[in-house]
Write a structure and sequence with these properties.
CATH class of the largest domain: Alpha Beta
CATH topology of the largest domain: Chloramphenicol Acetyltransferase
Shape: globular
Oligomer: single chain
Radius of gyration: 22 Å
Largest sheet: 7 strands, mixed
Distance between the termini: 5 Å
CATH architecture of the largest domain: 2-Layer Sandwich
Number of helices: 10
Length: 448
Amino acid sequence: MGSLCPLLFRVNRLEPELITPGKPTPLETKLLSDIDDQVGIRFHYSVIMTYKNNPSMKGNDAVMVIKEALSRALVFYYPLAGRLREGPNRKLMVDCNGEGVLFIEANADVTLEQLGDTILPPCPHLEEFLFNPPGSDGILGCPLLLFQVTRLTCGGFIFGLRVNHTICDAVGLAQFLNAIGEMAKGADSPSIPPVWARELLNARDPPTITLPHYEYEQLLDSEGSFIIDQSDMAQRSFYFGPQQITALRKHLPPHLSTCSSFELITACIWKCRTLSLRLNPKDTVRLSCAINARGKPMDDLCLPLGFYGNAMGGPTVVSTVELVCASPLGYGVELVRKNKAQMGKEYMQSLADFFVIRGRPPPPMAWNVFVVSDNRHTGLGEFDVGWGRPVFAGLARAVLMLSFYVRENNQEEEFGTLVPICLPRMCLDRFEQELKRMILEHVEDVSK
């Protein structure tokens, strides 16, 4: 997205409060799975959603509607109202104590129209619409979720949400939000009952690593190749609509011309990113794709409907800088397909075994690592508490080596894809130049 003029407005927030389950819930301890408690997801992720005014909801207050529905939904999802503890060997577990989730009520003297594209990632107003109460964002002993609902002067509202990633992925979160939406519309219970079943993603006995897990291996490369100054970081979102997708497909050989938009966009941004970093041509680069392990063709994993834990894996492919940069776009598409093909029951079981055997190592923090997550079909955009579907729904910002895909407009059947990229400013400028070179000249500007 292009640079935007600063927008000045004021947000008045009430003091954060704890929303607890509306009825007594079990006091117990629940273990997270060996996929949940990996070090690589011990962080909070932020989601932002925007809602228009709905005349049919006149007289209803979105803050009160969501707050009440949240309390009722927590009766069924009571572990989310607990706190994380760490046991022997750093094993995470939830103390289901009913302490509650954080909730902030707010008002802003601005309209949705005035906010315009500034609400899209990387949202410069995130701190206004999702305040971080001091001491609330730890992994252990802190609320697992933070909500902020901000009324706008146009009658619409902004719904901000922060989630401890170890407790659920985006698909699991969407399931919980759907339960809140159903409660807001008068349901007595969720249409899809929540299922804990975290033991299904635990290591085998005995654990046995059966596949390579390059996503966690510390590969040896040229000394200093990936040490880049992080003091001048920048973020920008890049738009891929029908014109851009059509233009990129013209780079592919016939046998790849029907590849998915995910495969095409991922190959494109991986190549442009690698080119922009100017790494040693002989060194390795890695691409990990976060892939959902639920449903077909993953039915043999037997995750039940209603499972809301982390069920994502990140299969990884490895290449050299030289090959990624010099090869046609189809080379990257083939590697993305190879990446996706690795996902299966054996991969997830081997990954859980890997964490237990290796002591849950952290993922490599280096610029030659790139992780992508497709959030266009997680279900987050279905969250409706009576005001209809959100205009925009998605993660708010990229994080260093992680980018994600979101719908530019959640209310249209045909939508463009936004991809936030986080890089040192000089590299980000080069990324944009490389991307423009790749898109045919008749597409005037891909960074809308």
